[in-house]
Amino acid sequence: MAKTSGRTRGRIASRLAAAAITAALVATGASAVAAENPVKSAGSAAATVKAPASLRSGAVASAPSQFGLYGIASDGVQYGYGLDGKGGLGDRDQLGYGFSTDRDVVQVDNAGDGGNSTGIWFRGANGYLGYMAWQGTPQNLGGGWNTYNHIWSVGNLGGAAAGDLLARDGSGNLYIYLNYGNGQLTSRYKVGGGWGQYTQIAGNGDLTGDGKADIVARDGSGNLWLYKGTGNYKAPFEGRTKIGGGWNTYNTLVSTGDMDYDGKTDLVARGNDGSLWRYSGTGNASSPYKSRVKIGNGGWNTYRLLF
């Protein structure tokens, strides 16, 4: 039985199975659960973040997370793969269904302790954002999220332990929503404009060895860029540096944290031919990834979403 950070893949599957079905219903509005909502409607004017007292600038991240990899097939069925402890993935488990209309589903670690994800955020076609802790009660975080063309969960960018959320609107403006540590979010804070040039954004931990979470972004020409994190939610990234070209051979980039158990954050890339590759992190800003390693021969294009 493959293990992910000390927990068996089967155990992960059992707790996700019921959660996934309920979460999908909330995302589509079929069974929304009322909850206090610290998020302003994404369709409203941007507001200054009211940061929780626990947030601080320049915080140092803990060990990188070690998430499994999950996929949503075109028919809305959800599957999961645990880490095999060797840099690859274990056998797949069918976990749930009802995700056929969800536009984004992303994992998050609220604990920031270098372990598994603790829940998911999911955006329905009707513009509602939901959150569900594994084995928890689904929560409706509010509507208006269709103003964004994509959302990403990319680790702790704001200085506290919990992973935060990035969202990009149709004008190319990028916003950060800080996580209170329970899946609830602050009001949005504008990171900046010009992010519409990127076709993929990914990240889940430190790529440069300074203890702060970073992201990578691929532009339309296939160039991959590194944005070093600052740990400060008011200015979460330094200026970009180019990693390299030729990344248009992939149609999806996603980070599930440390896949090969070396203490460094890695990247998963799905080829246009349906193959799957791991780029192990180096912890070196000038060359953040080692040469790619194939971890899936084909068939991965069956998934509409990977997260």
SSE order and pairing:
Elements: E1 3-4, E2 7-8, H1 9-27, E3 69-73, E4 78-83, E5 89-96, E6 104-108, E7 119-123, E8 129-133, E9 139-142, E10 148-153, E11 165-169, E12 174-177, E13 189-192, E14 198-202, E15 215-219, E16 224-227, E17 241-244, E18 250-257, E19 266-271, E20 276-279, E21 293-296, E22 303-306
Antiparallel strand pairs: 1-2, 3-4, 3-22, 4-5, 6-7, 7-8, 8-9, 10-11, 11-12, 12-13, 14-15, 15-16, 16-17, 18-19, 19-20, 20-21
Commentary on this structure:
This protein has 307 residues and is mainly beta. It is 6% helix and 34% strand. The protein has one helix spanning 9-27, and strands at residues 3-4, 7-8, 69-73, 78-83, 89-96, 104-108, 119-123, 129-133, 139-142, 148-153, 165-169, 174-177, 189-192, 198-202, 215-219, 224-227, 241-244, 250-257, 266-271, 276-279, 293-296, 303-306. The strands form six sheets. A four-stranded antiparallel sheet has the order 5-4-3-22. Strand 18 (250-257) and strand 19 (266-271) form a beta hairpin. It is globular and about 40 Å long. Mean pLDDT is 82; it is low at 1-60.
